[in-house]
Amino acid sequence: MEILDQTLAAIRPADLQAMADARAHQDRLTKPRGALGVLEEVAVRLAGVAGACPPPAPAPAALAIFAADHGVHAQGVTPWPREVTTQMVLNFLAGGAVANAFAAQAGVSVTVVDVGVAADLPEAPGLVSRKIAYGTADLSAGPAMTAEQAVAALEAGITVARDLVAQGNACLVTGDMGIANTTASAALICAFTGRDAADTTGRGTGADDATLRHKIEIVRRGLEVNDIPGDGDPGSRSEVVRRLAAVGGLEHAALAGFVLGAAAARVPVILDGVIAGAAALVAAALAPDAVGYCLAGHRSAEPGHAITLDHLGLRALVDLELRLGEGTGALLAYPLVSAAVRVMHEVATFDSAGVTDKDAQATLDPST
Ligand SMILES: Cc1cc2ncn([C@H]3O[C@H](COP(=O)(O)O)[C@@H](O)[C@H]3O)c2cc1C
Ligand SMILES: O=C(O)c1cccnc1
Question: Which residues of this protein are catalytic (predicted)?
């Protein structure tokens, strides 16, 4: 609990002065005001994160893929066998997954973190072993984790974020792997927003109509069995941890810790899809200021994701109907984030470039 306590105590609100400076700087650059749209807000946000204008380049960046298995898999909520979690971890380590291709394209390093895979994994470069259990229990039959396990996973995520920042990374990127984790994500989104299971539950890796109906029922049962009220407002920290432990996954808990660790280190974290979003809801419930350190990489096709982004007040940078996870959507957004910051460092101002600023001229010569 000590690591979690220290981390929560270290999280500060985004720096409003640096954000105001960044807005003012954007307005002096040789472009019509507001012409870079959402990218201007990204640069302002990163100034708030770093407490500096211009903010430092978000490089190098590191993707951490948190992997774990799920007891709720036994309920038939996904068409894929549970073993695929382990097999995909090995695929990430061999460099063969979509996340590896996108990470290579973006120049982002890949670390895989085992927080709860239901198999013993061989030691390998790029694999960090922080296994807390061989998967969770079935969330539709009782709590998926104990509170101790949830805190241990939160702290594992914090430690991974801290280590990656200590290694010189200036931007963190979330990734996940865990067959059946869109079910736990939907349940978490209900528990932290108060929305109904029918709104938050999606097809994940390709559930058909019958499986989707069943999945919604399983999410409902999980909330009921675990006495999670429909208020969407856990209030106390112990209730946040109780709800997380009840219906979350070990990777969700670790991802929530990863977000908190990034915020405490004043480093931006690019969120991937619905799994990272669900985890960010947990992080926000523990430390509302952590949201200021998050960027929504993309908007997933899973219905719970739009609800989540809305709740967090985040705008997705990319919307390509992706529904994969692994960090793929966040990786595609990374070059946009880099470009937004590069503008702040490299683009000339009206003054420095001798370009006429229509607004400045209007002030000088009120007759025009
Ligand atoms: C081959 C394969 C690669 C993946 N990479 C990410 N996921 C994604 O799908 C899983 C969640 O979907 P559901 O809840 O429907 O099981 C997660 O592991 C997620 O990261 C994959 C899934 C599969 C099958
Ligand atoms: O939105 C996601 O991140 C997602 C969707 C389906 C399966 N896995 C992940």
Answer: 326
